[in-house]
């Protein structure tokens, strides 16, 4: 009686866990069933190695590389912006700042992550780009740089907040050990606390990267929607997500080849995030083995 | 209340019991002389075992307390003092046995006044009262009283000193009984020594209570 | 010794760098907020909150939008919280450390990285079409639930992980069953962390636009929904719609709506922060 | 499922109830929204909802019978029509307004006064990609500076129409231009870029006149500046296009829907300009009304 | 009566053979101490006695464990019932983050007792038994975590007593406490043994010597010596035991 | 020489008066033990000696502390230098999550020593001093956390020795260890006192008695008694001390 | 190596030293008789202080070890045995002092053969050799050897028994020297008792090594 209730509960819980699997299956199913048609018409080699992505133009090219490079470029810029600043803020808040300052500032910063991304998009377009144009030659109205930077600002709180959590969780005893040997705060922070929290910091960075990769509105608004295969941050680029929104919100005939491209792009993105997650998983595991 | 407390209390009680036992032996010896009753002496001999058993039991208790409760400071001194006291008491018990043995073997054939001459009864009387007071002092943990009681061993020393003369004279008078007389002489020495041992007990008490070693102080 | 002096200088320098960047972050936030406030604050009044959408910017209100958002929020919470928490519990407390558990774990990490628009496509196929819910609140809430499920599951697991094992052992040691232990001890002890995660996840759901447009959330809804099967619009869609209009006044409306949306997010984050602080204070093992 | 109830089957004055589901083009949305809003004062119990899935997204739902009316910024396509047929959905196409496309340059651009259609084609055709990049390639006396192109996203109806009108084939253009689904973004882009050149909906120009320089089009009959008049009377061609609503036959039979559509067509002359679009001529509206009336009749 | 009897118990964690042929009979109403160097299997054996090892991955057991004469690893045994009968107190005080009252009442509620009066009675009684009542009676609704470490540990004991166990297992119950709290716990244990059978793991040999009646010395998973505590600490039979208790080791 | 001299030290945490008029002179090359009930201020006083309390909110101090004759709370004192001279070992072994080598080399690097040869030398020497060299010499690049608790604590001592302190403060350095590891640490302390002045806080009175030359008994923030350990444990002068060490308290 | 180890070693060494000291006293007494050298006896009296000091020092060490190192099992028994041994040794030392005192006061005027008659030198010889062997046994912790050595106290008992006769006869012959003779008689008793005490040391060793209490076994 008691036992069967236990079993029932366990089953219910397991079923809830299963829903996530079903979701993934659903996603994969939707992605594959729609992109099936796409890959029947477009050879995989074209998809992977063609350097142009123009499925909506009359001269159609289906090379995913420009979208990948756009995604890559904006993400890298965002990460380069957010990681150092995020970590500096995290270290400052966790190691230097007064408790009260930390308590008040941290949620404030977290709000940055909660601002609707549309707002960031316009911020990039109307504030950051004109500002950058004053000293970056050849910077277009739409460019990867500005979008990347703003995306970086947007994910600063993701990194700083989660990193700060990780830093804060480092036992006080480690800090005391370092101070006890005559280390300064700076030395203690960067030689002991940060390395000790590195797995947590890494996770925060990966979450930041995931957010940057998956981010849509900022890039759709500020980076332009021009799939160019370039690594020049001054150029307008298009990311995979921007492309997906562009098409799925646009006036494309459903079921057409053009429509199917968004699933091909989507599955690429999915594989991409999948790889990223696996790498982070692997890193985390390696770390755990080493230090726990 | 720490767990050691009841153990220490039991230890103290046992020492007092042992002291009472030994004192009882002495009283019986005294009575035996007084009443000329050999059976009392026999009793003392029979009971000597008990004293030994008691000593071994208390020593064992001390060992257990030391092994199990790690006493320090005053607690530790109590245990150490107890160890020494039982040793002393056992030797006093031996003395009672020697007297009893002598009484058992020789009292019947003995000229009455010899015992008087050696003041055996008086010595026993003194010792018994010393032991009584010492027991009191132990119970009250009263070092002053203990030391005062210990002083009375002088009386026993005096008796013993006198015994030399008595022995020499009596041997001259009764050369055939010289062995008996020498034994009597030995007994006075034993009783004198029992007084010393009683004094030792007082010293142990001082050590326990005041952490002062008074032993050998005088002798230096 | 110059070495000590140098180290001290570095230390001081870093302190100022830290302050600078922290304040920079806050400054950006204020720039946003002030910007938006300047644009939209004048537009906010009672009518704005209670009017239906209109072609005239000055008459247009967000009644249906914010009620839609409230509906979506409630329904999403209703769906996602039990499932997410249950799945989190299963994985953390029940799941053995085997391959399947690892796959589920990895799977959840992957789901967290899937762009929201793809969830929209999924919702369209599954809920709108397959389950024939149409572009209803329920379909939207289900879609958003799937979207935030990974976040809730991860937050739940982290919170459960933080509950010391000694608490579980204490409960088992008294003869409690696994579920009793989870229900009476582990969950309450982890509730702060779980709630924080839930609220952060919901505040993400509040801001989502794209997937709801894909499943067919509407732009013009002149009535407040009274059942989960009604059609709906939400604030982000209203904002998106307004800011893409040519007329300046609609942009102002958009800014005003953004203020409302931010307000909702702030309140939710505030609750999360409050819960987190309370939780951190209370539980000090 | 349609929930339309018919409490009274006759009489215009009757209070109607029921629900009308509209989805589709975001371009047409402001017009439909305005109509729906006004219709509410007439028939407050009819629930009219309007979505913005885009013309294509809208047709997909329309073809499945999920919506009653579809807003469209272009005529239905073959595949979409086939889907309707497959699901036994008959529909009528009603023209409701014109949308003009404008070509603009930056305010500081002193050299461009007008473009011929040929010139536009030269700029935008696919072959121009990476070849035609400076102003002087268009007209030699223009400066030898790189121009930057802005335009609506390739998935939009506006883009389709522009390419069809200028290049000759829908979806056929160079790829190296900056696109955004949001026309306000294009306004922003062009107004901040001295060498910017963009095209987008007339309404957006109207709202941002002070930031941009409008460029006239010479389609062989002289330079025509886009305006309500020139669009309405057809002289501003080829860059003006009609926008439509599509109504299914099932829905058209429901009194609230037919009442709504009629209301739409009869109020369009006032409401269309109100939201920044160009109305048809009265005759044209009459024709559309007639088309709808005849469609509603049982065949 | 033999409340606990282990026969030939072998325990493995995966490939790690942690307990080897442990044979022991534990007396009723007595305190039995398990001592031995770290990792020798004391905790493992203790946890084997109420099946707290069940949840550990890779745990395997051979041999038999009888509690009150019944084999506890048999299929039909309800592990919850077993644990109710064989209570457990842990190294670090681990009160539930609830009120003092709730902590003690938890076990009762879990076992289906919901009569308020009955619960109140039982809570008071357990707290009294654990010598905590006088200290907490005015603040039963205060959070248990607001108590000092020593009080927390006594609360944990009270909590265990509330479900009326007959055996109490304690895994280093005082090792996280200061000497004064430790003394209180030791005193409590000595009092409790009148009604309960107590098994305690301790690293502190002085503690084992002070409070236990019998001591079991484990080494490398084997039960090297088991006997009266007083004998063990004055005259152990095995050289290994002697070396361990006198600090000569390794 | 008087390596440590405290004069009239009073410490407050906010309004909490934690140390009251503590006056003590600690001898060179000796082991001094601080004992006393929990919360009496032992740790606080210990940490006052190398200013580890500086970072604690609300910490205030009156009175003077001299190390090697210099007041350490003076403005011009460089706290990093002070802490280098007055090393500290903590209750729970807290090696950095780095390799064994890195742990010991850390202090040297921090103080600007980057000559590889010099560092290698110093690491080896410190590990030898800490009686750990033979156990770890073949795995210097293994993570420190892979060591056992006792080894970790010796590593922490080695790490402290590496920066050549003259005084070592230890706050319950063996309380988290099993008896065998504890014995090793105690032995090490006894060896180290030949070269270092060692102050150790301990809850374990047997430990204090075993290893220290002098003992200071704190109670409620006051230094009640300070003297030779052997005297303290056989014949303490103060009744409070006697009560504490014999377990009669409160 | 635990910290207690060197302490225990020192304790053992000190006991052996004390034993050597006491034995030396006895040797000096013997030499004094043999060489008729009063100065040696005086030395013994002077040195008696050292024995007492040694006893107090060792007792204090034991107390410290008990208080500071909490010995258990064999370590504890060693300390306890040591406590008793020093007590025994001190008493043996007392005996040496008594002999020395007698020699100092009375040797000069003494007829040579009296000492022979009481076999004082032989008794001392026996005791010294017993102490030597006992020292060896302690060092080697050899209980068998210790018990064997202890058996030799029978020899001393025999001498003592003979002393009764000798005393009685000599007092008859020299009634004036009766006090001296009685003192000589006492000394033989003391030496006999020193033999008993030596035996006790053996018993303590057995207790330390084998945890067996052999004391009082025989007497029961
Ligand atoms: N969960 C586990 N999984 C695998 N091995 C374990 C586990 N728990 C303990 N062990 C191993 O089992 C052995 C015995 O552990 P146990 O905890 O019983 O020792 P212990 O005597 O209680 O030690 P301590 O005194 O340190 O608590 C150790 O070698 C340990 O490494
Ligand atoms: N950071 C702090 N802030 C405020 N009060 C503190 C702080 N640290 C300690 N105290 C208080 O100071 C007093 C002394 O604490 P301290 O840690 O020095 O005691 P202790 O003798 O080391 O105790 P324990 O033996 O438990 O380690 C205690 O009353 C404690 O509550
Ligand atoms: Mg254990
Ligand atoms: Mg402390
Ligand atoms: O939304 P549109 O179809 O008009 O681009």
Describe this structure in words.
- The complex is a heteroheptamer, with one copy of chain A (292 residues), two copies of chain B (220 residues), one copy of chain C (285 residues), one copy of chain D (299 residues) and two copies of chain E (250 residues).
- Chain B has 220 residues and is an all-alpha fold.
- Helices cover 85% and strands 0% of the residues of chain B.
- Chain B has a single domain (4-210), classed as Phosphate transport system protein phou homolog 2, domain 2 (Methane Monooxygenase Hydroxylase, Chain G, domain 1, Up-down Bundle).
- Chain B has helices at residues 4-35, 38-69, 73-106, 112-117, 120-140, 143-151, 153-173, 178-210.
- Chain B is elongated.
- The termini of chain B are far apart.
- Chain C is an all-alpha fold.
- Chain C folds into two domains: 2-43; 47-284, MetI-like fold, CATH 1.10.3720.
- In chain C, helix 1 packs across helix 11 (248-282), helix 3 (63-94) runs antiparallel to helix 8 (178-207) and helix 3 (63-94) packs across helix 10 (235-243).
- Chain C starts with a helix and ends with a helix.
- Chain D contains eleven helices and eleven strands.
- In chain D, strands 1, 2, 3, 4, 5, 6, 7, 8, 9, 10 and 11 form an eleven-stranded mixed sheet that branches.
- Chain D is elongated, with a radius of gyration of 21 Å.
- By secondary structure, chain E is α/β, with parallel strands linked by helices.
- Helices cover 36% and strands 26% of the residues of chain E.
- Chain E has helices at 42-48, 79-85, 100-110, 116-129, 133-136, 149-162, 179-192, 205-211, 229-234, 239-245, and strands at residues 4-13, 16-26, 31-35, 59-67, 70-71, 86-89, 167-171, 197-201, 214-219, 222-228.
- In chain E, strand 7 (167-171), helix 7 (179-192) and strand 8 form a beta-alpha-beta unit.
- The longest helix of chain E is centred in the middle third of the chain and has 14 residues, at 116-129.
- The model of chain E has no long low-confidence stretch (mean pLDDT 91).
- The chains are: A mainly alpha (292), B mainly alpha (220), C mainly alpha (285), D alpha/beta (299), E alpha/beta (250).
- Chains in contact: A-C, A-D, A-F, B-E, B-F, B-G, C-D, C-E, C-F, E-F, E-G, F-G.
- One magnesium ion binds next to helix 1 of chain E.
What portion of residues of chain C belong to β-strands?
under 5%
Distance between the termini of chain C: 43 Å
The CATH fourth-level homologous superfamily of the largest domain in chain C? MetI-like
Instruction: Give the strand order, joined by hyphens, for the main sheet of chain E.
Output: 6-7-8-3-9-10
Number of domains of chain C: 2
Low-confidence blocks of residues of chain E: none
- The CATH class of the largest domain in chain C: Mainly Alpha
Specify the structural class of chain E.
Answer: alpha/beta
User: Could you state the order of secondary-structure elements of chain E as H and E?
Assistant: EEEHEEHEHHHHEHEHEEHH
User: Element order, helices and strands of chain C?
Assistant: HHHHHHHHHEHH
Number of helices of chain C: 11
Q: Structural class, from secondary structure content of chain C?
A: mainly alpha
Query: What bound compounds does this protein have?
Result: adenosine-5'-triphosphate, magnesium ion, phosphate ion
Helix content of chain C: over 70%
């Amino acid at each position: 009686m008691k036992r069967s209730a236990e079993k029932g509960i366990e089953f219910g819980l397991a079923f809830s866990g299963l829903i996530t699997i079903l979701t993934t299956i659903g996603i994969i199913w939707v992605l594959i069933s729609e992109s099936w048609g796409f890959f029947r018409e477009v050879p995989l080699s074209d998809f992977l190695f063609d350097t142009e992505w123009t499925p909506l133009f009359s001269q159609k090219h289906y090379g995913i590389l420009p979208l990948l490079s756009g995604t890559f470029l904006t993400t890298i810029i965002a990460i380069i912006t957010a990681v150092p600043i995020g970590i500096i803020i995290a270290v400052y808040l966790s190691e230097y700042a007064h408790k009260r300052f930390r308590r008040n500032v941290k949620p404030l910063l977290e709000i940055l992550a909660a601002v609707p991304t549309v707002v960031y998009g316009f911020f990039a377009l109307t504030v950051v780009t004109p500002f950058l144009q004053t000293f970056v030659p050849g910077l277009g109205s739409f460019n990867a740089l500005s979008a990347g930077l703003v995306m970086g600002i947007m994910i600063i709180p993701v990194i700083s907040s989660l990193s700060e959590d990780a830093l804060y969780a480092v036992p006080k005893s480690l800090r005391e050990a370092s101070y006890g040997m005559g280390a300064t705060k700076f030395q203690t922070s960067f030689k002991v606390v940060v390395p000790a929290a590195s797995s947590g910091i890494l996770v925060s960075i990966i979450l930041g990267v995931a957010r940057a990769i998956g981010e849509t509105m900022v890039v759709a608004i500020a980076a332009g929607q021009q799939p160019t295969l370039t690594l020049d941050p001054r150029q307008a680029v298009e990311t995979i997500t921007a492309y997906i929104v562009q098409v799925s919100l646009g006036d494309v005939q459903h079921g057409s080849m053009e429509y199917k491209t968004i699933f091909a792009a989507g599955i690429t993105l999915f594989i991409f995030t999948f790889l990223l997650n696996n790498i982070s998983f692997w890193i985390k595991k390696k770390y755990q083995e080493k230090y726990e | 209340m720490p767990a050691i407390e009841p153990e220490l209390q039991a230890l103290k009680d046992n020492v007092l019991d042992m002291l009472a036992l030994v004192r009882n032996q002495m009283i019986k010896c005294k009575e035996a002389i007084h009443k000329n009753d050999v059976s009392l002496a026999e009793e003392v001999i029979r009971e000597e075992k008990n004293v030994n058993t008691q000593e071994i039991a208390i020593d064992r208790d001390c060992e257990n307390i030391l092994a199990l409760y790690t006493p320090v400071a005053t607690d530790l001194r109590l245990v150490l003092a107890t160890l020494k006291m039982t040793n002393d008491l056992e030797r006093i018990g031996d003395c009672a046995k020697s007297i009893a043995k002598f009484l058992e073997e020789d009292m019947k054939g003995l000229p009455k006044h010899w015992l008087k001459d050696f003041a055996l009864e008086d010595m026993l009387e003194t010792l018994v009262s010393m032991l009584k007071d010492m027991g009191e002092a132990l119970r009250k943990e009263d070092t002053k009283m203990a030391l005062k009681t210990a002083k009375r061993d002088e009386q026993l020393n005096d008796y013993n000193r006198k015994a030399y003369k008595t022995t020499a004279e009596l041997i001259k008078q009764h050369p055939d009984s010289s062995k008996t007389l020498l034994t009597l002489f030995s007994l006075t020495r034993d009783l004198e020594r029992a007084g010393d041992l009683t004094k030792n007990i007082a010293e142990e008490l001082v050590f326990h209570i005041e952490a002062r070693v008074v032993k050998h102080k005088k002798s230096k | 010794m110059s070495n000590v002096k140098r180290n001290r200088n570095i230390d001081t320098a870093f302190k100022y760098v830290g302050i600078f960047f922290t304040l920079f972050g806050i400054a950006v936030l204020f720039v946003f907020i002030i910007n938006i406030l300047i644009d939209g604050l004048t537009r906010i009044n009672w009518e704005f909150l209670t009017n239906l959408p209109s072609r005239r910017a000055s008459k247009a209100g967000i009644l249906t939008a914010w009620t839609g958002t409230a509906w979506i929020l409630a329904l999403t919470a209703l769906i996602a919280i039990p499932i997410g928490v249950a799945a989190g519990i299963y994985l953390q407390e029940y799941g053995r450390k085997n391959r399947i558990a690892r796959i589920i774990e990895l799977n959840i990490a992957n789901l967290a990285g899937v762009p929201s628009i793809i969830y929209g496509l999924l919702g369209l196929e599954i809920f709108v079409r397959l389950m024939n819910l149409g572009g209803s609140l329920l379909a939207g809430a289900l879609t958003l639930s799937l979207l935030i499920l990974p976040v809730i599951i991860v937050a739940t697991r982290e919170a459960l992980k933080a509950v010391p094992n000694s608490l579980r052992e204490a409960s088992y040691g008294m003869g409690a069953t696994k579920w009793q232990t989870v229900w009476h001890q582990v969950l309450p002890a982890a509730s702060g962390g779980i709630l924080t995660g839930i609220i952060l996840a919901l505040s993400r759901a509040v801001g989502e636009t794209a997937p709801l447009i894909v499943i067919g959330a509407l732009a013009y809804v002149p009535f407040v929904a009274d059942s989960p099967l009604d059609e709906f619009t939400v604030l982000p869609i209203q904002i998106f719609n307004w800011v893409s209009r040519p007329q300046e006044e609609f942009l102002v409306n958009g800014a005003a709506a953004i203020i409302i949306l931010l307000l909702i997010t702030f309140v939710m984050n505030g609750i999360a922060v409050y819960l987190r602080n309370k939780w951190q204070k209370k539980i000090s093992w | 499922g349609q929930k339309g109830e018919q409490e009274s089957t006759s009489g215009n004055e009757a209070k109607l109830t029921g629900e009308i589901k509209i989805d589709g083009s975001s371009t047409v949305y402001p017009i439909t929204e305005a109509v729906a809003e006004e219709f509410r004062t007439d028939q407050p119990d009819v629930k009219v909802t309007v979505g913005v899935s885009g013309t294509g997204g809208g047709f997909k739902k329309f073809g499945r019978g999920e919506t009653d009316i579809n807003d469209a910024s272009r005529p239905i396509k073959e595949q979409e029509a086939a889907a309707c047929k497959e699901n036994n959905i008959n529909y009528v196409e009603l023209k409701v307004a014109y949308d003009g496309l404008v070509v603009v340059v930056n305010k500081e651009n002193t050299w461009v006064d007008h473009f011929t259609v040929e010139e536009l084609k030269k700029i935008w055709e696919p072959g121009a990609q990476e070849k035609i990049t400076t102003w002087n390639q268009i007209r030699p006396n223009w400066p030898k500076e790189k121009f930057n192109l802005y335009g609506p996203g390739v998935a939009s109806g506006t883009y389709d129409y522009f390419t069809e009108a200028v290049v000759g084939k829908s979806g056929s253009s160079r790829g190296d231009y900056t696109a955004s689904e949001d026309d306000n973004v294009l306004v922003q882009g062009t107004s901040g870029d001295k060498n910017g050149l963009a095209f987008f909906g007339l309404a957006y120009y109207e709202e941002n006149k002070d930031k941009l320089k409008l460029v006239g089009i010479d389609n062989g009959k002289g330079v025509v500046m886009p305006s309500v008049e020139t669009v309405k009377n057809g002289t501003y061609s080829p860059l003006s296009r009609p926008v439509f609503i599509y109504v299914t036959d099932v829905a058209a039979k429901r009194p609230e829907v037919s009442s709504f559509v009629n209301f739409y067509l009869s109020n369009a002359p006032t409401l269309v300009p109100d939201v920044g679009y160009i109305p048809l001529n009265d005759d044209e509206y009459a024709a559309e009304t007639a088309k709808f009336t005849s469609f509603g009749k049982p065949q | 009566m033999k409340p606990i009897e282990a026969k030939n118990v072998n325990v493995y964690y995966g490939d790690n053979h942690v307990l080897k042929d442990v044979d022991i009979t534990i007396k009723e109403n007595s305190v039995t101490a398990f001592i031995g160097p770290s990792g020798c299997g004391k905790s493992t054996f203790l946890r084997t006695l109420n099946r707290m090892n069940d949840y550990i991955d890779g745990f395997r057991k051979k041999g038999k464990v009888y509690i009150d004469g019944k084999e506890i690893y048999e299929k039909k045994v309800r592990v919850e019932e077993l644990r109710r009968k064989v209570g457990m107190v842990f190294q670090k005080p681990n009160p539930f983050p609830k009120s003092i009252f709730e902590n003690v009442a938890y076990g009762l509620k879990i076992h289906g007792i919901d009569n308020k009066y009955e619960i109140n009675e039982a809570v008071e009684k357990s707290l009294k038994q654990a010598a905590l009542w006088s200290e907490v009676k005015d603040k039963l609704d205060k959070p248990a975590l607001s108590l000092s470490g020593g009080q927390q540990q006594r609360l944990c004991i009270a909590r265990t007593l509330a479900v009326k166990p007959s055996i109490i297992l304690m895994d280093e119950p005082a090792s996280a406490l200061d000497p004064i709290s430790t003394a209180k716990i030791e005193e409590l244990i000595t009092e409790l043994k009148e009604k309960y059978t107590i098994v305690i793991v301790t690293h502190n040999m002085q503690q084992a010597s002070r409070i236990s009646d019998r001591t079991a010395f484990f080494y490398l998973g084997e039960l090297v010596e088991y006997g009266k505590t007083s004998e063990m600490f004055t005259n152990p039979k095995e050289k290994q035991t002697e070396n361990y208790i006198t600090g000569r080791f390794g």
